[in-house]
């Protein structure tokens, strides 16, 4: 167990995630593609945050990976994030397998 307060842990994890995502965006930009991407790190229930951000940005398409970190039992009981997004939005959703 750590003595760090929750706010510090979130800030640390947020920085780590932001750094990884910035590296990925840099690779996309260096690839010469016409893809527009914006880095967003949010806290909350993943599917709710994804749908909310897509609505806020008036996104044309939501693209999701289908292999997440959810345990098999959790996925069986509650469904995957991708499935929840599909059920929660009227926007087009493209699900891409990780493999």
What features would you describe in this structure?
- The chain has helices at residues 6-30, 46-57, 72-78, 81-88, and strands at 62-65, 93-96.
- By secondary structure, it is mostly helical.
- It has a two-stranded parallel sheet.
- The protein is globular and about 45 Å long.
- 6% of the residues are buried.
Index terms:
two-stranded parallel ribbon; 99 residues; 4 helices; mainly alpha; globular
Write down the overall mean pLDDT. 80
Shape: globular
Note the total helix count: 4
Radius of gyration from the alpha-carbon trace, in angstroms: 15 Å
Largest sheet: 2 strands, parallel
Helix content: 40-55%
**Residue fraction in strands:** 5-15%
Please trace the helix and strand order, writing H or E for each element.
Answer: HHEHHE
Sheet/helix structural class: mainly alpha
- Low-pLDDT runs: none
Strand order of the largest sheet: 1-2
Total DSSP E strands: 2
CA distance, first residue to last residue = 34 Å
**Oligomer type:** single chain
Topology overview:
Blueprint: H1 6-30, H2 46-57, E1 62-65, H3 72-78, H4 81-88, E2 93-96
Helix pairs in contact: 2-4
What's this, in brief?
The protein contains 4 helices and 2 strands.
């Amino acid at each position: 167990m750590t003595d760090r307060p929750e706010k510090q842990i979130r800030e640390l994890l947020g920085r780590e995630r932001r750094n990884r995502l910035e590296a990925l965006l840099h690779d996309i930009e260096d690839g010469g593609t016409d893809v527009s991407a914006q880095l967003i790190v949010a806290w909350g229930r993943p599917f709710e945050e994804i749908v909310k951000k897509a609505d806020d940005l008036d996104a044309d398409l939501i693209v999701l990976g289908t292999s997440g970190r959810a345990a098999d039992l959790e996925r069986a009981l509650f469904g995957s994030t991708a499935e929840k997004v599909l059920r929660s939005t009227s926007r087009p959703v493209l699900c891409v397998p990780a493999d």
